[in-house]
Write a structure and sequence with these properties.
mainly alpha; 77% helix; Ferritin; globular
């Protein structure tokens, strides 16, 4: 099922929409925590701190958007409040594992160098994805005249992508090669996740909040 069709189905069902926003919030929060976990206590930079703070804010913002959906209550990230819970919780963790494996094999990185390189490549791949996903979602929201919007997230994610490219250029002369590998890994995981979300919403779409 293509993304726009999935989003249209989600936005037209309050229960699905609330779960979707909660799922996005979970994933933004997971990303923020991973950025913080990659920090070196002595050398953490302004850009890394800024990025972690903005990802945490995105997670909070998406949670707040749920309040605009009538009678929707999604108090936690427990499975019953998410879409494709297992895949949603696995997605970023698996991306991190797979990129770390690639960096160990190709560049023989370890320790803090591995953590920093993984932060760069994982975050780059996620920002490329965010630059595709959020605008499509916003288009569907606008077409449905929804009270919910993610325009502020779109603007910040665009800035994040520029920042990641700048950091990658300083990381390696072959950054595009490594970045393309990270994107390929992410694409496989994303397609698996989207398939799981699509299958779940097809079985839930008839539910009425």
């Amino acid at each position: 099922m293509e993304l726009k069709k999935i989003f249209a189905t989600i936005v037209n069902n309050n229960n699905l929409h609330a779960r979707w926003l909660n799922t996005l919030s979970l994933m933004e929060n997971t990303g923020a925590r991973k950025i913080s976990a990659s920090e070196d206590p002595a050398t953490v930079t302004y850009i890394i701190l800024k990025h972690a703070a903005e990802e945490h804010r995105h997670a909070f913002y998406l949670k707040k958007q749920i309040e605009k959906i009538e009678e929707a209550v999604m108090p936690t990230y427990a499975p019953q409040y998410l879409l494709a819970a297992t895949h949603s919780k696995r997605y970023l963790n698996q991306l991190d594992v797979d990129v770390c494996r690639y960096l160990k094999e190709k560049l023989a990185l370890t320790g803090k160098e591995l953590r920093f390189a993984a932060y760069l490549l994982v975050t780059y791949a996620i920002e490329v994805r965010a630059d595709e996903l959020y605008p499509i979602y916003q288009d569907v929201l606008s077409e449905a005249n929804s009270k919910i919007n993610v325009k502020s997230i779109i603007l910040e994610e665009e800035g994040h992508l520029e920042e990641m490219i700048n950091q990658l250029q300083h990381f390696s002369a072959d950054w595009q090669l490594h970045a393309s590998e990270a994107v390929a890994i992410e694409t496989h995981l994303f397609n698996t996740w989207v398939k799981a979300v699509g299958e779940e919403i097809e079985s839930m779409a008839s539910m009425v909040l």
